Amino acid sequence: MFEEPATKKAKLDPTTMTEKDIISDYINKIKNSKSNLQAVLSDELSHTIETTKVYIASIKDKRNISKAIQVLNEKLPLNELSHLKRVRKNTILLCQSSTVNTSTIEEYIDSKLPELKDVFELFSEIDVPSQAPKLKRQYTEAMKMWSCNFHPDIYLEKLSGDHFFPEDELNLHRTFMAIAFEAAGWYLKSTVKEITGDLLQAVNSSVVVDPSINSVVAVSFDNRLRHPVQHTAMMAIDDVARTQDGGAWTRKTTCNDSELSGIDMDLLEHLRIKFPDTKFGAKKFTSKEENIENGEKENTGPYLCTNYYIYLLKEPCFMCSMALIHARVKRVFFCFENSEFGALKSKAKLHTVQSLNHHYEVFTGFL
Q1: Nearest to residue 205, comparing CAs of 218, 220, 192?
Q2: Beta-carbon neighbour count of residue 94 at 10 Å?
Q3: C-alpha separations of 19 from 22, 173, 194, 335, 336 in Å
Q4: What is the pLDDT of residues 289-322, one digit of tens each?
Q5: What SUPFAM superfamilies does the record tag this protein with (predicted)?
Q6: Which backbone phi and psi does 280 adopt, to 5 degrees?
Q7: Three-state DSSP class for residue 336
Q8: Which of 122, 143, 159 is the last residue in one of the domains?
């Protein structure tokens, strides 16, 4: 049930606060936050642009620029640096430094490109961007080194900025994260005598939301003391499966309504009192067999967490992060970083691995 304490902690004094105060303090800080959420992006977007060394030279006579480019593109193509322009004013990019296998660049050009002998002068070696810029700030940085191609991505620019979510949507995200805190407190009260700030950050709870109807589909908590695989995200996926006539693990619930079967009924009653304006329940699920009977060709219901959002108190581990990929979650939100096992920011950024067949967006910065 319990994970190692997170490294990032809000300033709370458990010696002077009751368990109700601790939960309320976190929720109030989240709801009253003035900052936007931050997307966790791949290193190639968040880090300084990487460079590689190339040789350049000036053209003695500008009338030879077209000929020089034609010969260079044919005999010394910039295969790995195709994002770079060959010419910058009267200077030409000759080749990557790593391809030169002679003592000097002049000797290399004379041997490889005899038709361009005596065309160049003022040879030098410089650093250039090794990859195409993906953000405007990277493009600005790259252009200081060498001219390059750039195709702006409006969505990516917004995602990397500080104002991605409008205020009304931010309020929804804050409310769903507040529900995760309230759920953690509700579960903890049944297992421990006193809730402290450290304890709250050592556990994990999750809330799954269908953003198409802004409704809470599942609310889950860790059960790893009794089952090593039942981390909160794994429990959440199984709870979502229960709303789709599936699920592998049994729960203590009296709910016979499949649309609400992802939430413990006692907890649901508690949350409805605490969050009267929040909608709970999944869309009515129809199986493939039912659709065929009704003349439909395909299953109209979602596959597990397809297009769903999940809100977690703590950054998930590798197992849970990969499970959320397989479950086809659209967005993952977390509050506390997991310095020991976090797979979405602290130890890795699993969601940015290009070879995976599904990718979700990750956001943090609630506190």
Answers
A1: 220
A2: 26
A3: 5, 23, 7, 19, 19
A4: 666 666 666 656 678 999 999 999 999 999 999 9
A5: Cytidine deaminase-like
A6: -125, 140
A7: strand
A8: 159
